Amino acid sequence: MPRYKLVVEYDGTAFAGWQRQAADRSVQQALEEAIARFTGGPVRVHCAGRTDAGVHATHQVVHLDLDTPWRTDTVRDAANAHLRPEPVAVISAAAVSPDFDARHSAIKRHYRYRILNRRSPPALTRGFVWHVPWALDAGLMHEAAQLMLGRHDFSAFRAAECQANSPVRTLDRLDVTREGEEIVVVTAARSFLHHQVRGMVGTLMLAGGGRLTPQGVRDVLDSRDRTRCGPLAPSGGLTLTGVDYPADVG
């Protein structure tokens, strides 16, 4: 049974998240239904990272098994034809070995968070940014972010419904920069807890607004207390931008 790796992008605004839901539309459902239409049978798609409702992706990675071999360009183009008008697109398709697993083979995941930091609300980027109308100091946010790098217990930023076996994660990157009216947070780790990135961004926002010092942000991390976390940043500002695999995998 041939296995394929797809790179997928999507606007998560209209979806209840990646994972299939009992009632609401999901990205997984849209993709599986599109592929089933041209293969003629049901298919199960497995992703590198399940995104929440409203979260976007420019580089989600999935794998799937098909009953018969297909040309990779046909898989890509036929899937896209049947995805219309869903805000989902298959960017590339490749044949991979049967032991490739989009989730378990991954060694790093990359996310970007966008904050629109101006008085006026967004008109063109609504649903893709968090609008914060008061002044934020990106330099202070970056200083605080560097105090969270490394291996820690991230319970303070973990959702109550998180199903991970351990709250310990190794944060490889957490950079904050200002790009005009936007503050951009870029982060990377092998894996993240449920709501971890959005919790960290909300807490960094408090530092940028002068409500927490950089050391205060580190104190939140060290407390392991979810009640001390800043506000949960809205899902629309978050985008999955990349997934890394070993050179000899995928």
UniProtKB/TrEMBL annotation:
One Pfam family named in its UniProt record: PseudoU_synth_1
Active-site residues, record numbering mapped to chain: 52
UniProt entry tagged with the keyword DNA damage: no
GO molecular function: RNA binding; tRNA pseudouridine(38-40) synthase activity
Recorded catalytic activity of this chain's protein: uridine(38/39/40) in tRNA = pseudouridine(38/39/40) in tRNA
Domain Pseudouridine synthase I TruA alpha/beta: 7-103, 144-246
SUPFAM superfamilies: Pseudouridine synthase
Enzyme class label: isomerase
Record-listed E.C. numbers: 5.4.99.12
GO biological process per UniProt: tRNA pseudouridine synthesis
Keywords assigned by UniProt, alphabetized: Isomerase, tRNA processing
Residues noted as binding substrate in the record, renumbered to the chain: 111
CDD domains referenced in this protein's UniProt entry, alphabetically: PseudoU_synth_EcTruA (cd02570)
Function: Formation of pseudouridine at positions 38, 39 and 40 in the anticodon stem and loop of transfer RNAs.
Family listed: Belongs to the tRNA pseudouridine synthase TruA family.
Subunit: Homodimer.
Name by which UniProt lists this protein: tRNA pseudouridine synthase A
Annotated source species: Methylobacterium aquaticum
Gene that this sequence comes from: truA
